[in-house]
# Entry
Amino acid sequence: MSRLFIQTVINAIAILAAAYMVPGIVFDGNIWKLLLAGLLLGLANSWIKPLLNLISLPLIILTFGFFTVVINIAVLSFVALMVPELSIQGWMSALWGVLVIGITNYALGFLLDKE
# Structure
């Protein structure tokens, strides 16, 4: 199976998990919109996030890497802007959403990487 498809499904499951676990994150679309959000999150993480990391490298170094959390929040907020069915109310919801999505991505990636 294609790595892009697997990562898209993992991202979609992670977004759905964040919507269920984090108050302030709401997803009210169908499966296709969820997969679209997962695809956009994967593309944003592979194209936009490295550019933001490079631009904000001094801040990342100055804050000992904690500024990457702000970048992750910005990427998730960008995906929420692109997919109207995904809504995030407030920075704390976005922060907890980023943590849930990251942990879910790590766990599912670890479980599915046994090939």
Observations:
- The chain has a mean pLDDT of 93.
- Residues 14 and 101 are 5 Å apart (CA to CA).
